[in-house]
Amino acid sequence: MATAERTTPLDLLRADFPALDQEIRPGVRLTYLDNAATTLKPWPVIRAVQAFDAEYPANVHRGIHALSERATEAYELARAKVARFIGAEDPEQVIWTRGTTESINLVAQSWGRAFLKEGDEVVLSDLEHHANLVPWQMLAKERGLTLRFAEITEDGRLEPEAVERVMTDRTRVVAISAMSNVLGTVVPLEPIVAMAHERGAIVVVDGAQGVPHRAIDVSAIGADFLAFSGHKMCGPTGVGVLYGKREHLEAMPPAWGGGSMVMRVTRESSEWNDLPYKFEPGTPPIAQAIGLGAAVDYLSKLDSGAVAAHERGLMEHAHRRLSAIEGVRILGPSPEHKGGIVGMDVEGVHPHDLAQLLDREGVAIRAGQHCAMPLHQKLGLAASGRASAYLYNTTEDVDRLADAVDRARHLFKDRRPRR
């Protein structure tokens, strides 16, 4: 996340997000703390998508009329904005996808199939979302690969040494999350990337949570691939990004065939298009990409350090309030090691019941396994509650969360049968 010439005080941002200005039911206003699932959209993003749909709703690259040319210009400008936002050297290294999941699948199914062979190893961690686990499981079964897992500490941190311990001379890929979507754990990417490269392995970073909350410069980190989603960083749903080093993208075969990704087609064969279009068959997510470009513009006006400090302050406040409630177990590390996510297990209250009770008070959280079943198994939990903050949340939101959790805890405690 870039630091712009001017910054906007975070307490003035809430007016930019129309979804916050509503009551879930009469007299119950919204407290939105489900940002790890998807973030709210500010007016500049909403208007950018509306402008495309209303003023120049044309396909890109194919038309030579005014609307198509305008759409193409806005679409490719968004790609350039994203490239600058993550420190990519060239916009051609930015591939549009439908989201993080598709981006990681693209790496596994294209690069993985082309360059991994039986006996090769893929290193992952206990923190991984299914999007950064299942594609490698599928490829492992197909190619005879071995998956190895770095274990987290008791408080949910991932230390570089834990990754190093499971690396061998057969390690070819290290696929790692920048930030856990369950515990909020921020992973130290730089030393992990360095260790992997020393062993000749590539690094695939799941940045779904990391990119929205931390400044990630792919050139500085040296990651080979970075995947993330637009809707977790104030952008629209249905659009994501795969960044790749040019040498990898050039060497990878297309994963899907169709229009736009070809230069020449005969009955017998096809010649692939240049980057990035080789990986973008068919009509792309035009409106969504333009909306993501507007989201990047919005986030680039903010000081990334101020946003991180704001979220840490919210997490410190959440830890204080929630830890003071009897029967509440906070999952994951202390605030200095995490982003804006606080997972919890409330004694005697199923996470689904907790989420439903909080919803009655207008507090939106997530309940379940959060597409991270192996992590929950390691934690000894069937499910968990998760509150996740973003740049527009306040300490008042955290207080409403804690008060609602306290009332839910007492409600279920009072309902227990007495002996």
TrEMBL record:
Family: Belongs to the class-V pyridoxal-phosphate-dependent aminotransferase family. Csd subfamily.
Residues covered by the Aminotransferase class V domain: 31-401
GO molecular function terms noted in the UniProt entry: cysteine desulfurase activity; pyridoxal phosphate binding
UniProt xrefs under SUPFAM superfamilies: PLP-dependent transferases
Known catalytic reactions: (sulfur carrier)-H + L-cysteine = (sulfur carrier)-SH + L-alanine
InterPro entries (alphabetical): Aminotrans_V_dom (IPR000192), Cys_dSase_SufS (IPR010970), PyrdxlP-dep_Trfase (IPR015424), PyrdxlP-dep_Trfase_major (IPR015421), PyrdxlP-dep_Trfase_small (IPR015422)
Cofactor: pyridoxal 5'-phosphate
One of the GO biological process terms: cysteine metabolic process
Protein keywords: Pyridoxal phosphate, Transferase
Pfam families: Aminotran_5
Source organism of this protein record: Tautonia plasticadhaerens
Annotated EC: 2.8.1.7
Main EC class the enzyme belongs to: transferase
Name this protein carries in UniProt: cysteine desulfurase
